[in-house]
Amino acid sequence: MPQPVITVVGPTATGKSGLSLRLAAALGGEIVNADSMQLYRGMDIGTAKLAPSERAGVRHHLLDVWEVSRTASVSEYQQLARAAIGEISGRGRIPILVGGSGLYIRAAIDKLEFPGTDPLLRDGLEAELADLGAAALHARLARADPAAAAAILPGNGRRIVRALEVIELSGRPFSATLPGYESFYPAVQIGLRLPRDELDQRIAGRVSQMWQAGFVPEVRELAGRGLRAGRTASRALGYAQVLRFLAGEWPEEQAAAETVRATRRFARRQEAWFRRDPRISWLAADDPSVADRALAALATLSS
Questions:
Q1: Are 99 and 16 in contact (CB under 8 A)?
Q2: Coil, strand or helix: which one is 118?
Q3: What helix, strand, coil percent values describe the chain, rounded to 5?
Q4: If you average pLDDT over residues 161-190, what whole number do you get?
């Protein structure tokens, strides 16, 4: 590749989209989405997806790819992302990979191979998840692969099921499927971070803006298109909470408050994930000159 892939990563609400637009304008780049939920059609307000009018004329790739009823596939995303990166580079443009889904970032730029899936096995594990709960399956995972269990929250049923599936199919620990940080492409990575208090305030402000922008009607409309049946999309931050409100389980105020709490917890997990990658150069997201600093860092890292 004539130019390295640029990645812009970090927790939610740190301003990755805004920085990526400025980098794309300065460098002649195009943006490849690496937010797992922005791949879904119609999941716009709750994922802070930029509207076409907000993209400043910068071409974006891998937005609105899947229907909300479809289960996400990291291996499929890997194929899509690498095709987009190759196509962008082939036209002499610079691919800028942007998002907070750490595994998706690594799937795109690193030498990761994903074990296959077995629908019958997956369905059986999903049924056990529904019957026994995530905590019981997490305990099973802890016995089979303590390292994987330590890295996956006890309430993250989707990842627990996938880990148990991989162990059953491959005969190897799930943790063994994530090797060291070995790049598939030459890449330079910029990370954005904020002090915890400021990040928490931004998250609360974003959730408030989501509600004002019509988030509840968005979820209601997606529910009519199969959102509840979607194993991945139905569990997305905010969407899961609003579905409980629409089902009469929670008042609307609780759904909003739970969205804030869940998003803050998720931001902590994002921070922990990205901190483990020694290749990321970190910048303060609240620095008014962050774009200039990012361009300077990219020039140094690329040389």
A1: yes
A2: coil
A3: 55, 10, 35
A4: 86
pTM, 2 dp:
0.87
Q: Which fold would CATH assign to domain 119-177? A: Histone, subunit A (1.10.20)
Reported confidence tier of residue 2, pLDDT bands at 50, 70, 90: low
**How far apart are the C-alpha atoms of 298 and 303, rounded to whole Å?**
8
Band of the pLDDT at 303, cuts 50, 70, 90?
low
Place of tokens 């004539």: 2
User: Which of 40, 174, 34, 49 lies closest to 106 in space, CA to CA?
Assistant: 34
5-112+180-302 and 119-177 share one fold: no
Domain boundaries in the chain?
A: 5-112+180-302, 119-177
CATH code reported for the domain at 5-112+180-302: 3.40.50.300
In whole angstroms, give the CA distance from residue 220 to residue 199: 28
112 to 75, 190, 251: CA distances (angstroms): 9, 20, 43
Look up residue 125 and give its two tokens.
């594990």
The two structure tokens encoding residue 138: 């997490």
Least confident of 176-190, 224-238, 248-262: 176-190
